[in-house]
Specification:
Elements (H helix, E strand, L loop, with lengths): L1 H18 L9 E5 L7 E2 L5 E2 L1 H10 L6 E5 L2 H9 L5 E5 L6 E17 L6 H7 L3 E5 L6 H9 L3 E5 L6 H7 L1 H4 L5 E5 H11 L3 E16 L4 H12 L3 H10 L4
C-alpha cells in the first residue's frame, strides 16, 4: 500500500509539473492593435487579420508560442502595454514613448484628403485664407506633419479617429462634403480603400510625411521582444510578398 501511495504521489507531481508553464508550452504573446486596414483589423467572423497580423502569426507558427490579438483604440493599446496587461502593441513610433523592435513592416503615409471638387484649387485657396484641417486627437503626429501644416497656415481642429466599422469610416469623410473642414490628415493606404469601396467624392493630395511604424513594448518585456524580433527577421521575403498580395486592392 505504501508503494502504491508513493507511485500515486509521483504521478500527481509529474502531472502538476507538466501542466505548469515551465514544462508546458510558453504563455501566449498578448498583442494589441488599433483597426488599421490593411495591416490589422477584425473581419466579419471576428478574427484578427491584416498584413502585420499574418506576419506575426507566420513567425510564431513553428515556435511553440501562441498569440492572442486584442483590438482596442490606439491610446488604450499603449496604456495596456505600459501597465503590463498586454505584451506588445502594433503601429508605434518614437513619439509613443515605448521601446520598439528594430524592424518595420508598416509605413504611416500621412496625406491630406480633400473634396474632389477642391483637388485642383486647394493649395491656391490656402494662400488666400487659412484652411481648416482636421487631425486626430489621439495620435502624437511626427514634427514634420505639424511643420507642413504650419507652412499652410492651417487652422487645426481635432476629433477622435477611432472607428469600428467601414461604415463609420465612410461617415468620417462627410466632414469634407458639408464643408465643415477643408482637409483631413489621413493615412493614404487606408483612406484609398474607403474612398474606393464607397465611391466617395474625395481626393488624396501629395504626402505630407511618411513615418515607419514599429511593434512597441515595455522595457520589462525585453526577452520576449528579442525572441519575437528574431522570429520576424527569419521570415522569407517570398512569404512577406505573398502575405502583402492577399491585401492588394483590385
Amino acid at each position: 500500500m505504501h508503494t502504491l501511495y508513493a507511485v500515486s504521489a509521483i504521478v500527481l507531481l509529474m502531472m502538476q509539473l507538466w501542466s505548469s508553464s515551465s514544462w508546458g508550452t510558453p504563455a501566449p504573446l498578448r498583442i494589441c492593435f488599433e483597426r488599421w486596414w490593411p495591416y490589422s483589423y477584425v473581419d466579419e467572423s471576428m478574427q484578427a487579420k491584416g498584413i502585420e497580423v499574418d506576419l506575426i502569426r507566420y513567425a510564431l507558427s513553428h515556435s511553440g508560442t501562441d498569440v492572442i490579438f486584442t483590438e482596442l483604440p490606439y491610446k488604450r493599446c499603449v496604456e495596456a502595454v505600459n501597465q503590463g496587461k498586454l505584451d506588445f502593441t502594433l503601429h508605434v513610433d518614437e513619439t509613443d514613448g515605448l521601446a520598439m523592435l528594430d524592424q518595420s513592416f508598416v509605413n504611416w503615409e500621412l496625406t491630406l484628403a480633400v473634396a474632389i471638387k477642391r483637388q485642383e484649387s486647394f493649395y491656391e485657396q490656402a494662400v488666400q485664407r487659412s484652411p481648416i484641417i482636421l487631425i486626430a486627437e489621439e495620435y502624437p503626429y511626427p514634427d514634420e506633419v505639424y511643420s507642413a501644416l504650419k507652412a499652410l497656415n492651417a487652422d487645426i481642429v481635432t476629433r477622435s479617429y477611432y472607428e469600428s466599422t467601414d461604415a463609420q469610416a465612410k461617415s468620417f469623410f462627410a466632414t469634407l462634403s458639408d464643408s465643415r473642414v477643408d482637409a483631413i490628415v489621413v493615412d493614404r493606404t487606408w483612406a484609398a480603400k474607403i474612398i474606393h469601396d464607397f465611391d466617395l467624392p474625395v481626393a488624396l493630395l501629395h504626402n505630407l510625411h511618411i513615418e515607419p511604424q514599429y511593434i512597441g513594448y515595455h522595457p520589462n518585456n525585453e526577452k520576449k521582444a528579442l525572441r519575437l524580433q528574431h522570429l520576424l527577421s527569419s521570415i522569407p521575403e517570398s512569404v512577406k510578398k505573398e502575405i502583402e498580395r492577399r491585401y492588394q486592392q483590385p
